[in-house]
């Protein structure tokens, strides 16, 4: 099952580092910043249990550039999305306000209002530079009925949990259930079509 996930947040919050850490097992270097130009994405296949059965999820994880030139993500970018990682840099309070604006722009289109969001606090390892309290982010996440996790792309702490939590959120969402039902209906239609073709051969 193809599962499209988006990384959302201001520039330098750690979106690309999170993508590489999870998909390529490459840890970020503290102080090193490499901006995404345009759009990047990676694919990772995982096995999960759903409704008593093992299912295969083909995660398509999209990273969209956050520079001023690409500040406004086209609405088409959200189409078919199963979940959004909303990243906040724990050492930069403005990144929380920036994420709020991005979520608001996404939800201007009614068809994207119910896309599940997971709030991710990055740069957990820089505890001495932290500007946002845990309580503040929990209140922020509550506005979107979202869960919250913290990660460090430098040490790798919390990265696996971050994606496990997102998959859990996606599997529980109404969007996923509808997608699964549509897939089952398509299989039935294809099977009936094959049966009709076999009958027409006689």
TrEMBL record:
Annotated GO MF terms: GTP binding; GTPase activity
SMART domains from the UniProt entry: RAB, RAS, RHO
Xref: InterPro entries: EF_Hand_1_Ca_BS, P-loop_NTPase, Rab, Small_GTP-bd, Small_GTPase
Keywords: GTP-binding, Nucleotide-binding
Superkingdom per UniProt: Eukaryota
Protein name in UniProt: Rab-like protein
Organism of provenance: Trepomonas sp. PC1
């Amino acid at each position: 099952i193809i599962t499209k996930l988006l990384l959302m947040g201001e520039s330098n919050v750690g979106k690309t580092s999170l993508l590489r850490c999870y998909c390529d097992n490459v840890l970020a270097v503290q102080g090193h910043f490499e901006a995404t130009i345009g759009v990047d994405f990676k694919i990772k296949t995982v096995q999960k249990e759903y409704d008593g059965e093992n299912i295969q999820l083909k995660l398509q994880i999209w990273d969209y550039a956050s520079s001023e030139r690409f500040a406004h993500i086209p609405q088409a970018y959200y189409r078919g999305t199963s979940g959004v990682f909303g990243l906040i840099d724990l050492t930069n309070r403005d990144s929380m306000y920036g994420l709020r604006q991005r979520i608001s722009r996404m939800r201007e289109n009614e068809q994207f209002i119910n896309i599940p969001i997971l709030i991710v606090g990055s740069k957990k390892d820089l505890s001495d530079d932290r500007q946002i309290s845990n309580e503040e982010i929990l209140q922020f996440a509550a506005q979107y009925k979202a869960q919250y996790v913290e990660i460090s792309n430098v040490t790798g702490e919390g990265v696996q949990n971050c994606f496990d939590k997102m998959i859990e959120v996606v599997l529980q969402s109404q969007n996923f259930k509808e997608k699964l039902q549509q897939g089952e209906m398509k299989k039935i239609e294809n099977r009936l079509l094959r049966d009709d073709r076999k009958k027409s051969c006689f």
